[in-house]
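Section 5: illustrative case.
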């Protein structure tokens, strides 16, 4: 009996062992894979999660606000002749100082002080020559010249800008008309009495030895006139840093006043200005020449202006010699060309009154905006010839009746 019970117990133990061993074997799932293998494969097949991007602030390049001023209501610190901010607005509590500067004889070159001028007028004085009238208002130069004689057109330009005139005498009839128009106090003639406003240096030939100090000219005028300082109304021009529409390529311009007398302007896109070049005589017999940079002798840096303008006006010759002219400006108008930002724009200039600056308009009668900055204005004859000698390269040859 006892032996039989032991046999049953052994059988039960063997069955338990079989069950336990079966439980330890991997379970399959239809394809012959074990559950563990299936789970591992499924986990391996899950997509890799993309991490959330790190939030960053995008870099934004600010758009520079356009600079727009004129033709009136200029802020107190904005120069109405340049559209530029003036560090010392009190500088403009005075009449503009306008100084005659020689371009001939060439021995007087390079000129002094033109880089400090707000505006430079350039016009024919006959026989193929030209002369400058430099306007100093928002800043001064202590050395401007060589100072030369006055012309009839000076009385109108100085009147328009309510300025004072510095010059080295003039033909007697011309001098009388200048004095009658402006009054004696507003005309400072170079003489031994005019220094330190206008002084002679080195005692070279008179045509190239006189130089002016624009700040001293203001002092001289106030002392002689007894006038109190005041801020003249110089409204009329408009400025916008965004170029107008409707222009054409105008990256180079040459003004030809006469044989071997040329002023050239070439646009520099890095500065948004036109650099000035001038003729350099290579052979005094043939007057063959090349073009060289025109520098300011005070700085030895090339002249550069933001705007170059050509206005076409009527020159009337008053003598049998081509030396004395009346240039009809006040109360009239004419065609013009504006070079700015490498573009050329056609328009109309107007002079409404003898005490109001020149104004510039497009073909629709709207103000033609200048680039904020300095301006060089060529006054050429009404019948001057305009040529485009290649795309963007313009050439104007002076001519009058």
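Designed sequence:
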């Amino acid at each position: 009996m006892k032996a039989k019970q032991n046999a049953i117990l052994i059988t039960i133990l063997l069955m338990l062992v079989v069950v336990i061993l079966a439980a330890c074997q991997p379970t399959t799932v239809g394809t012959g894979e074990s559950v563990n293998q299936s789970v591992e494969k499924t986990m391996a097949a899950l997509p890799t999660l993309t991490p959330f991007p790190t939030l960053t602030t995008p870099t934004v390049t600010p758009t520079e606000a356009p600079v727009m001023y004129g033709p009136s209501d200029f802020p107190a610190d904005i120069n109405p002749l340049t559209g530029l901010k003036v560090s010392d607005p009190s500088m403009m509590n005075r009449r503009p100082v306008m100084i005659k500067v020689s371009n001939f004889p060439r021995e007087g070159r390079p000129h002094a002080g033109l880089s400090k001028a707000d505006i430079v007028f350039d016009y024919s004085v006959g026989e193929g020559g030209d002369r400058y009238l430099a306007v100093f208002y928002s800043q001064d130069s202590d050395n401007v010249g060589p100072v030369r004689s006055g012309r009839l057109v000076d009385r109108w330009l100085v009147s328009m800008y309510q300025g004072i005139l510095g010059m080295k005498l003039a033909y007697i009839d011309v001098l009388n008309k200048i004095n009658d128009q402006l009054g004696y106090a507003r005309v400072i003639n170079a003489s031994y009495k005019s220094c330190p406003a206008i002084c002679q240096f080195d005692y070279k030939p008179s045509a190239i030895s006189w130089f002016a100090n624009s700040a001293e000219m203001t002092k001289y005028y106030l002392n002689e006139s007894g006038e109190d300082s005041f801020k003249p109304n110089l409204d009329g021009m408009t400025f916008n840093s965004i170029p107008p529409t409707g222009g054409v390529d105008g990256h180079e311009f040459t003004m030809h006043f006469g044989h071997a007398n040329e002023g050239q302007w070439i646009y520099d896109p890095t500065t948004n200005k036109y650099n000035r070049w001038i003729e350099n005589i290579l052979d005094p017999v043939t007057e063959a020449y090349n073009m060289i940079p025109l520098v300011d002798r005070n700085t030895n840096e090339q002249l550069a202006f933001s705007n170059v303008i050509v206005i076409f006006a009527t020159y009337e010759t008053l003598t049998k010699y081509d030396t004395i002219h009346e240039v009809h400006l006040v109360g009239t108008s004419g065609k013009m060309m504006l070079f700015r930002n490498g573009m050329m724009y056609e328009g109309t200039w107007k002079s409404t009154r003898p005490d109001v600056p020149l104004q510039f308009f497009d073909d629709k009668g709207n103000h033609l905006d200048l680039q904020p900055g300095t301006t060089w204005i060529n006054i050429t004859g009404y019948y001057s010839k305009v040529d485009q000698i290649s795309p963007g390269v313009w050439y104007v040859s002076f001519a009058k009746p």
